[in-house]
């Protein structure tokens, strides 16, 4: 974590807040200034990142540079060191990971979508994909459960496609994810944040829509670059009535080869789902 002496205001931790019964520390005066101005009025990004700057960064993805060097049977995935500066304004949240892990060691991240009112812990129960359909972040039985990472994903978030499930029923962790079906909201709020020990990972939303996929990792081997490319093309060719897409990001998403999928439904196995697809766009050290 950053030393408080490095904060511009010099202020100390002023309060502590509880989000879904998990502790966070709120630091005053340590916000990340967004220096980029909007210079494309057709892309009204609330996070103060421009169309041009985002595309330029995402097009630095690792895949295109190395794909020609891979031998048969080899594959390339991202790493924490393959990082860019965050493009949006990172929320001033510093999780107390020692306390979080003490309360429930299944906690592997915190998902934050500021304008959607989503600040929830992300769980992963080894060997049990549906446990957190019916259990909250404290391990207690509760309707709506908790957001949870696919058991096929690693918790370092460098897989080509990381899947986070959550219920969208009233009171569920992803209750408001469907707001991305609104085109104005979709354009104005493009960034999602994952807080993990030592880092904040930023993802840029490139598509959102209803769908029926329930086991993406089994059905789609995104470690194969060609399969991953085809998967992105499939997303962009969707004819879902509520689909929202940023067409100009398509090649950058394929080139980046590292995405986050939020999958909301009444349960993990429900085929009535809403998806928000995003691509890795930056890292901030905490």
Write a concise synopsis of the structure shown:
The protein has 286 residues and is an alpha+beta fold. The protein has eight helices and twelve strands.
User: Main sheet, how many strands, which sense, barrel?
Assistant: 8 strands, mixed, barrel
CA-CA gap between termini: 4 Å
Q: So how many helices?
A: 8
Total strands: 12
Mean pLDDT over the residues: 80
Strand order of the largest sheet: 4-5-6-7-11-12-9-8
User: What is the H/E order?
Assistant: EEHHEHEEHEEHEEHHEHEE
Task: Please tell me what the overall shape is.
Answer: globular
Beta-strand percentage range = 25-35%
Rg (C-alpha, Å): 18 Å
Helicity range of the residues? 10-25%
Return the structural class. alpha+beta
Low-confidence stretches: 1-22, 24-51, 62-67, 74-81
Keywords:
single chain; 286 residues; alpha+beta; 8-stranded mixed barrel; 3-stranded antiparallel sheet; globular; disordered N terminus
Explain how this protein is built.
With 286 residues, the chain is an alpha+beta fold. It contains 8 helices and 12 strands. The strands form 2 sheets. It has an 8-stranded mixed β-barrel with strand order 4-5-6-7-11-12-9-8. It is globular, with a radius of gyration of 18 Å. It starts with 12 loop residues before the first strand and ends with a strand. The relative contact order is 0.18. Mean pLDDT is 80; it is low at 1-22, 24-51, 62-67 and 74-81.
Q: What's the SSE blueprint?
A:
Elements: E1 13-19, E2 22-27, H1 51-58, H2 63-66, E3 93-95, H3 97-103, E4 107-113, E5 118-123, H4 131-134, E6 147-149, E7 161-167, H5 183-188, E8 191-196, E9 199-211, H6 216-219, H7 225-236, E10 244-245, H8 250-256, E11 259-265, E12 273-285
Parallel strand pairs: 5-6, 7-11
Antiparallel strand pairs: 1-2, 2-3, 4-5, 4-8, 6-7, 8-9, 9-10, 9-12, 11-12
């Amino acid at each position: 974590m950053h030393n408080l002496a490095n904060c511009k205001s010099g202020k100390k931790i002023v309060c502590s807040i509880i989000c879904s019964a998990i502790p966070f520390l709120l630091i005053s005066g340590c916000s990340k200034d967004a220096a980029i101005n909007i210079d494309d009025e057709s892309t009204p990004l609330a996070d103060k990142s421009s169309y041009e700057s985002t595309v330029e960064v995402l097009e630095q993805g690792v895949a295109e540079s190395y794909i020609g060097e891979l031998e048969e049977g080899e594959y390339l995935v991202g790493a924490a060191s393959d990082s860019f500066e965050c493009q949006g304004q990172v929320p001033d949240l510093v999780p107390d990971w020692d306390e979080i892990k003490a309360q429930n060691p299944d906690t592997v991240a915190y998902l934050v979508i500021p304008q959607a009112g989503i600040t929830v812990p992300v769980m992963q129960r080894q060997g049990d994909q549906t446990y957190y359909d019916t259990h909250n972040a404290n391990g207690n039985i509760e309707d709506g459960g908790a957001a949870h990472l696919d058991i096929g994903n690693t918790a370092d978030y460098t897989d080509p496609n990381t899947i986070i499930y959550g219920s969208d029923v009233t009171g569920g962790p992803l209750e408001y994810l469907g707001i991305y079906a609104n085109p104005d909201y979709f354009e104005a709020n493009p960034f999602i944040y994952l807080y993990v020990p030592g880092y904040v990972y930023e993802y840029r939303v490139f598509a959102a829509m209803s769908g029926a996929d329930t086991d993406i990792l089994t059905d789609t081997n995104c470690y194969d670059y060609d399969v991953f490319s085809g998967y992105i093309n499939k997303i962009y060719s969707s004819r879902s009535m509520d689909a929202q897409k940023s067409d100009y990001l398509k090649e950058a998403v394929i080139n980046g080869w590292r995405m986050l999928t939020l999958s909301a439904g009444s349960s993990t196995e429900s085929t009535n789902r809403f998806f928000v697809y995003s691509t890795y766009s930056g890292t901030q050290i905490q």
